[in-house]
Amino acid sequence: MALADRTTVRPPAAGPPPTGRRGPRLRRALAPYALISPTVLLLAVFLVVPVGSVVHYALQHHVVNEPYDDAFVGLGNFRAMLGDQRFWDSLAFSAKWVVAEVLLQLLLGLALALIVNETFVGRAMARALVFSPWAVSGVLTTSIWMLLYNPATGVFHYLSEIGVGNAGTSVLGNPDTVFGAAVVAELWRGVPFFAILILADLQSVPKELYEAASIDGAGRVRSFLHVTLPHLRDAIVLATLLRSVWEFNNVDLLYTLTNGGPAGATTSLPLYVAQLARKSYDFGYGSALTTAAFVILLFCSVLYLRLSKFGRQR
Amino acid sequence: MTGLQHAPLDRTAPVESPAVTTATAVLPPAAVRRGERGSRFLRLFLPLGLYLVFTVVPFYWMLLFALRPAGSTSLLPWPLTLEHFGTVWNDMGFRVYFQNSVWIALLTLLFVTFFALMGGYALARFEFRGRRLFMLALLCTQFVPGAMMLIPLFNIFQTLDLINSRWSLIIAESTFQLPLAMILMSGFVRNVPVELEESAMVDGCGRIRAFLAVVLPLLRPGIVAVGSFAFIGSWNNFLFALMFLNDPELQTVPVGLQTTIGENTVDFGALAAGGVVAAVPVVLVFAVVQKYLVQGMSAGAVKG
């Protein structure tokens, strides 16, 4: 945090006249703590306590509407988890979902950022349009794509009328097509995130580097590979990491678009937990799943940062 | 943590220039060569056009169904009708949902912006014990799955007797949005030259007056960006509302939207009109914030 040293306000040399009550030095020392205290309080009560209580409940048998059955079960919930096929299925789905989403969002977002970073007439408008799905919620995405995917009202209906494909069944009702359909809907609103982040970083590439590369005879492709990509590396690592966590935890879209179906084909791990919480009120087992997910997520994140040598190159 | 600051932050740049997003396109000099027009089309306009179709058609589809009469198969919303809006607004309760969502989102915006300003200022301007730990904690919160906090948060709100109260949503949303908002805001504060504040303090202003008179006006882009993020995030939240509110009179737009999806009434007009109602505030906020978006991201998120 070397940055902070240089931006810290130095009190004026003379200093304000010392007040009678408290010395200015003490006030200055306490000020930052006072400023962050509301946030610390909020985070402690509504984030740290819940995390702690998840760990606590993970070791209990606790079904909300059967309070007479509450008991300490140790690792019993985790043992049950290992034998729960739905846990393994949902975990596998989550992995597949995160990899597909993040990879495609990154590739499309990178391409899009490069395109709208060029100069052309109507660029501001193009950017606004291309970025706009970023602000759309998961539930609204579902509404929109329901209209598009519905066999009676959707685009496939119109496409099949002009002879492209056939619109017999709903893509959301078919276990073979539902994954692709959900991935495309989520891509629609997910790509702008990468495009925005990468565009922000693209604008900090020093122009001189491109000039130097061009003098050295590098074409467009080579200057992209040797100038742009290395510059973007840390931003890409950070964006993919944040997005992976976010996509892993994201429930809204799948909950409303497919509700995990058909036949559990699109049940992600968080969705499974949310269903447990809402339907069976089995908070003990749900907490064990949450703890497991948290550990898996943390492990993968650390591994990813290690493997990508984040922040080490320059 | 230090790894995040891989690129030198340009602190000499004036803060009030969201123009960087549009003015300085990095252009390889080779691009303006003659005879590249054809390749420019293939490289630029064709993919952009295709992507625009992918982006815009879904929006258009929603508008189409919201505006044309039930049963019509026309690809243009003509003749125009507002009957579907009447249905969702009056009969399906969207008027109440809309009001609830507006209040919840505005209060979240207020809390998040205010606390983010306080904390962001502290992070940017003070060197204090525990600062790095606090920054690390803020980043770590990004790994906590909001959806998976449903169960314990439900218990806490039950203890506080806040289930079925809008405050549960406002508090939960603020908590989950504050960390990133604060990191973003500290980036914006850091971009305000510290000398301005020092000279105001030399002139006899206290720190608070120096902040209000000098720093705050220059922070307007940051406040707009952070506030808009908070508004959009809160407006879009679905699971917290679903979990913490039971009374339909208290429900929010996303939950209302889900009921239009869930009911097998196959009223696609209502489904689309509800979507438009949900989209309008967000689109308006997005229009305001979009020019700060790229700048905000580069100021705060990436270079923490």
TrEMBL record, chain A:
Q: Write down the Pfam families for this protein, in alphabetical order.
A: BPD_transp_1
Task: Give a GO cellular-component term.
Answer: plasma membrane
Domain ABC transmembrane type-1, residue spans: 91-306
Spell out the PANTHER family in the cross-references: BLR7065 PROTEIN, INTEGRAL MEMBRANE SUGAR TRANSPORT PROTEIN
The processes (GO biological process) annotated in the record are: transmembrane transport
Lineage top rank: taxon: Bacteria
Q: Does Transport show up as a keyword for this record?
A: yes
* Family per record: Belongs to the binding-protein-dependent transport system permease family.
User: Where do the segments described as Disordered lie?
Assistant: 1-23
Entry membrane topology: Multi-pass membrane protein
In which compartments does the protein localize? Cell membrane
UniProt keyword Cell membrane present: yes
The main place the protein resides is: membrane
* Keyword tags: Cell membrane, Membrane, Transmembrane, Transmembrane helix, Transport
Where exactly are the transmembrane stretches of this chain? 30-59, 97-116, 128-148, 283-305
The entry's protein name is: Transporter
From TrEMBL, chain B:
**Compartment annotation:** Cell membrane
InterPro entries, A to Z: BP-dep_ABC_trans_perm (IPR050901), MetI-like (IPR000515), MetI-like_sf (IPR035906)
What are the BP-aspect GO terms? transmembrane transport
Q: Where on the tree of life does the source sit, at the highest rank?
A: Bacteria
Q: Does the keyword Transport apply?
A: yes
Residue ranges occupied by any ABC transmembrane type-1 domain in the UniProt entry: 98-289
Task: Look up and give the membrane topology term.
Answer: Multi-pass membrane protein
Q: Which family does it belong to?
A: Belongs to the binding-protein-dependent transport system permease family.
Protein name per the record: Transporter
